[in-house]
Specification:
two-stranded antiparallel ribbon, 2 helices
Length: 75
């Protein structure tokens, strides 16, 4: 199980969120046999959610998708 929480951030400009820690940091909880136990040592950002969810669902991530995030918290 993986749960990703998004904090409702203020929008700026044409609806894009600012590229600041305040706008890109999320809380992150993961549980299950494939989860690395303990506290994450690196920050998890919004861009990490898609690739982490795909990994959790055992979907191979293709290079051609050009996803920016990194898998966080899974073995």
């Amino acid at each position: 199980m993986a749960y990703f929480g998004f904090y409702g951030s203020r929008r700026c400009g044409k609806g894009h969120v600012k590229d600041t820690l305040e706008h890109t940091t999320i809380f992150y909880i993961a549980s299950g046999r494939d989860v690395t136990p303990g506290e994450l040592l690196k920050q998890v950002n919004v861009v990490d959610v898609a690739v982490t969810a795909l990994k959790h669902l055992e979907i191979d991530i293709k290079e051609k998708w050009q996803l920016d995030g990194e898998v966080s918290g899974f073995k």
